[in-house]
Amino acid sequence: MLLNTFGIAVAGYSAVSAVILFLGYVFFIHLPNKSRYAIISGAVLHAALATLQVFHLWYFRSGTEPMSNTLYRCCLFAVPAFFYLFGRWAILPNERFQPVLLAHLLPLPLLFVLPLDIALPLLFLSGTGYAVWLGNVVYGLRAQRKQFRFEFFFFLVMSVLASVVLILGLSIAYIDAAWFYYFYAGAIGLGFAIMTVALIANPDLLGELSEAARVKYGASTLRDVDVDACLENLDCLMKESKVYRNENLSLGSLAQQLGISSHQLSELINSRLGMGFSRYIRERRVAAAQALLIASPSQSILSVSMETGFKSQSSFYAAFKEVTGQSPGEYRKAAAG
Question: Which of 210, 253, 308, 321 is the Cys-Cys partner for 289 at CB 3.0 to 4.6 Å?
Answer without folding.
Answer: 308
